[in-house]
Design a protein that fits this description.
Length: 255
């Protein structure tokens, strides 16, 4: 059987997108990992299936490149634009994820993803930690461009403190009170990706503890995003991840 797929990227975080509303495809981990393989498959940081949901516009079923599952911020933004392309939604949507219900709007092609309210990231001696649907270890560094993201990221990801689930690891450089540069080692990809939406959002909330204020412009290796939030009782509300989500190409694959 041949299945149509679309390739999307959100600030360089790239995803294979498949309309699975007819449930033709099963969630088989080996097959997903094979499709995401950059040498022997289509190649992507993750795969997203758009499926029907009983009460919301659609179900975004996200898999990392190795077939594991978690919440994906950039993937959610891309899924929203794909759902718009499929005419499932207009410019506003409420959809389901592994982390429950999310909402988003599309304004001039830019996706504004409403994230869940958060407590303040936990502060440790040399890092912060926040699980905002995916776990994020956050390190502030002088120059993110020079950070050993893959080596140090993997060491922290596989360290005793995060076993067995592991964590994503973010390296954050403060540029000014409204701007940061973030690089992320992603669990499930087991490498640096060009951008990580939940990691960028968590990094901005940790940056607020260092005096940064909303809105924060975020530079990633794959482009620019914006994070907005309100401080509320030591935590955060009205958190938005804002940025482009682009269809790159389409194709078909034998399954
Ligand atoms: N790229 C994502 C994060 C995907 C999940 C992560 N790799 C994990 O397993 O925790 C994003 O944009 O948020």
């Amino acid at each position: 059987m041949s299945v149509d797929f679309y390739k999307y990227q959100g600030t360089g975080n790239d995803f294979i997108m498949i309309d699975n509303r007819d449930k033709a495809l099963s969630h088989e981990v080996e097959w997903i990992a094979q499709l995401c393989n950059r040498r022997t498959g289509i190649g992507a940081d993750g795969l997203i299936l758009i499926e029907n949901h009983d009460s919301l516009d659609f179900d975004m079923v996200y898999f990392n490149a190795d077939g594991s599952q978690s919440l994906c911020g950039n993937g959610s933004r891309c899924a929203v634009n794909f759902a718009r392309f499929l005419d499932i939604i207009g410019d506003e949507t409420r959809f389901n994820t592994i982390d429950g219900e999310y909402a988003a709007t599309i304004e001039d092609g830019i996706v504004h993803l409403c994230m869940k309210d958060q407590v303040a990231p936990e502060r440790f001696e040399d890092h912060y930690f926040l699980n905002n649907g995916s776990p994020h270890h956050i390190l502030f560094v002088e120059r993110a461009a020079d950070a050993p993201v893959k080596k140090q990221g993997a060491t922290i990801r596989y360290s005793e403190q995060y076993k067995p689930a592991g964590t994503n690891v973010n390296f954050v450089e403060i540029i000014n009170q409204h701007e940061v540069f973030v690089r992320t080692y992603e669990r499930g990809v087991e490498d640096e990706t060009l951008s990580c939406g939940t990691g960028i959002t968590a990094s901005c909330l940790a940056s607020a503890d260092k005096g940064l204020m909303s809105p924060i412009k975020v530079q990633s290796k794959g482009g620019e995003l914006q994070v907005q939030f309100k401080k509320n009782n030591g935590g955060f509300t009205d958190i938005k991840l804002i940025g482009p989500a682009v269809q790159v190409f389409k194709g078909s694959v034998e399954v």
